[in-house]
Amino acid sequence: MSLSAGSRLGPYEILAPLGAGGMGEVYRARDTRLGRTVAIKVLPENLSADADRLRRFEKEARSASSLNHPNIVTVYDFGSADSLSYMAMELVEGVALRQMLADGPLPIKRLLAIAAQVADGLAKAHAAGIVHRDLKPENVMVTKDGYAKILDFGLARVTQPEEESGEATQAPTVSGATTPGMVVGTVAYMSPEQALGKVVDFRSDQFSFGSMLYEMATGKRAFARASAPETMAAVIREEPESLTAAAPSTPVPLRWIVERCLAKEPDERYAATRDLARDLARLRDGISEASTSGAFPAAAAPRRRPWLLPAALALVAGAAIGIVATRKGPAPVADYRAVTYRRGTMDQARFAPDGQTIVYSAQWEGKPPLLFSTRADSAETAPLPLPSGLLSAISSSGKLAVGLLRGDALTLAEVSLAGGAPREILEGTRFADWSPDGRGLAVINRGRLEFPIGKVLGAPAGHADLHFPRFSPDGREIAAIERLRGETEASSVVVFDVATGKKRTVSSGWGFASGLAWHPRTGEIWFSPRDLEPGSVLMLCAVSPSSGKTRIVARPPGVTLVQDIAPDGRVLLRVDDWHESTMYGRLGAGAETNLSWLDFSRVVDLSNDGNTLLLEEGGRGGGARGSIYLRRSDGSPATRLGDGKPLSLSPDGKWVVAEPGTTPDRLFVIPTGAGQPKVIRTEGGTYAAAAVWMPDSKHFLFLMRKAEKPWRAYLQDLSGEAAARPFAPEGFGIGGPISPDGKVAILNARERKWFLFPVAGGEPRPIPGLGSDVIDVLRWDASGRTLFLRKEKPPGVEIWRLDVETGRQERVAEVGPSDPTGTDGIDTIYLTPDGKTYAYSVMRQLSTLFVVTGLR
After folding, report:
1. What is the CATH number of the domain that holds 344?
2. Catalytic (active-site) positions
3. Of 20, 156, 315, 851, which is least packed with CB atoms within 10 Å of its CB?
């Protein structure tokens, strides 16, 4: 069947054909009554006689016409004429998403602009109880103005509105055109439950949408196989290639969203599609220029003991990707009253059952961590008669859950607030909370939630861990921070039902979140996430666990971590000041010189003569991408070389190899004097934050990983004209500088094993005499016969000299901060070939605990 131009179909004049599909043909037409151009979808005569096809056609019209949303095509009319059934709808002038994908993956900004609109339209349909069941790129049109429109509700199924139930066993209120056991839809975009012929709900559309997101990011289908049966089997049983490998520049929060949508089990997807739409909209609106191109964080996390707050440096670096809360504005007037006045680092704090006593753990003046108590109305504090440890929780009856320190290991123990000997409960964990009745203890054990101890109540999503469990005031639910493992540690707030273990996500997509407490009056969950803005720090937010609405409560100046909320609404907040300093000195020459420039100055390299330092500024002052500086040892002002993360200074002092902070497939070589940066492309792989120059200053080694293969060292010439060539077998990292004669490189493998690699080729040999106490190989001496080593001796380090032939070692010196308060050891240290001049960086965290009234 084909309608010719000028023919009439009811009040509509056919103008031209637009396309055809399994459910009919589509024409451009003119509504003679209203004088507007429309699209007419016509069900052919033979199909109009098919009762099932006609019912599906009518249902599509009813489903779509019931939805009034800018991202869903509008249906104007439905009728029949001359034995033909037709549907008049909005004419979308644009291109199908399928055509847009013909040229490969979409740029991230374009992807997010389209995806956020489709998700918003989908959320509208799901809220009305309509499941599309055939979502695919062919059914999404994008107008010339950039508006995305969802088309073709021909396979839609009407169920209960999404808000009424999140259960997979929803009973349909209006029967669809199919029954359980019948498979409908497009194979490559089906959900596993749809492919198995099961009854589906809105979460099936989420899976289809996740498949579309994957294709938009990678340019290839998630489950494409040689035949439809093979594709269906892949949908049911297999995982697509990871986005990390298929599209390395994809921002981490988007990777997490896709992974969640493509979860095989519906319960692991979004509990409401409006949450999915909200995550994408926030990411679209807040993503920075650096994050759109897959930037690495501006600063890597320092070496810190496992019991300290993880990724504290990332909190102030502000370059990793996060999600912006839904409401901004001036914080309400509040009164902040400090209850700690000593200098040092704090961990967790809680109100005792009386609401006035406060118990916390801290390291004051650089001493080991102890538990202390104070009063909300007093400036005095006193240590509790307990061994060194960290506070986890306080029960309603006054029992403490504490993490006892055994070296770097932790053992969870129970002890009375009144004193006594601790009773050990569980090794290797410290995150815990008492149930409101004080009888049970929920713990995070190996990243999973257990309640009671030994019974797994819930587990995080893949590649994530749980932190900071807190019972709701009525004891029916447990909230926690779910944090993705990786450099950005993207986070969500999740809630577990104590009776069933069912998990739901109430606020997601944050770049980093920490600290959590239920508000006893409002029922909100208060937590401390990081904003997207460059240089931002942890702020205070609240989310309603029922609606998912997230709001900003306050933005204090500093890293803010919520600790507890008293029954009367007073809030216990910890506010941290984080700085990294670079110190410079000469062995035996007396006091060191502070050569820091901005707020997070990390030394990355030191010239052979000791007169020039290469600095990375990775904090608020350095901006979203970080900044590269050179500074002379005489204390003269630093010279800014540009954005990015510096890796190494050439021996002649003329070049710096750096990450640009924009793309993962290239490096920059930046001149320290006049000239323009050179781009070193590393096609086919992503680089690592490690590089070292050859003595000729014309070549350098760097680390790169291709697809899912291990890291590998590559040799690159300065010109960048020739492609980098593999230097060593896979699995070896860069373990130190090149020997002065350029003949030997130091590479390392797992378990702190170092090897000497002949640059000209040949078999590597282990470095004799290196034990597990060696942390780093710092450099060769000028003769090329000995190496300088680093060994830990907190808060400083020891420098040792090693003879590479005999393995004999001798201690050279001990270096460290004169004031260890708030520090946990030296981060980076560099040494000149004569072993006399050094520069190191150390991070310092200083905490203050506040009782805050008036926060709402």
Report:
1. 2.120.10.30
2. 134
3. 20
